[in-house]
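Can't paste images in this forum, so I'm doing it all in text. The chain is below; anyone willing to post the predicted structure tokens underneath?
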Amino acid sequence: MPKIVDHDQRRTEIVEAFLAVVGRDGPAAASSRAIAAELGVGAGALWHYFDSLDAVVAAACRRVLERTDARITSATEGRRGLAALDATLREILPLAKQTVDEAQVVVGFWGRLATDRQLAAGQSDALDMWGARLRRHLAEAVDDGDLVAGVPADCLAEVLLSIAVGQQVHAVLDGARTDPQHQLGLVRHCLTPWTRTYATKMQNGCPAGSA
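Text version of the structure:
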């Protein structure tokens, strides 16, 4: 009898092999030969499951977005307001090896993936969803009394998401600029003017950070 192959499982294995190569050796090393070697098969075996290396990259990026969203959902469970906002951004910012590796996958292949309309739509959907989460948590922070009522939630959520994506780019181009405390400091810098403590100090004529 011919061997029955689970195509979905095999596609998943190829994507995981691609992610493993990127995480270990960087995106430039993730050739079809390297992926096949990771799996212990000939390079030609990949094309029974994907039409091209671009298709592998597209599937890997979708996998990264799915993983990120799953982590966000888990990290924010039972949290709201600024705590949930912080937990969300920590899963997108390249603060640890996993998120740095994911940034390598997404950012390192943006040029190649720019022509993939399906992937571009998927990435846009993810950003829209994460932006909606940030806006919701900002509104919760206002309700909780941690942020002032006049906070421009839509604009601030977009700025925070832009910081997260920008730091992903830095992780690829200049790892020295992705110190976790620096990244989190950028987030705090954006939020500070809208905190009640800061607003009270300014109303009393006391500059931020003064005793």
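Residues 207-211 have pLDDT under 50 and may be disordered. The longest helix spans residues 117-143.
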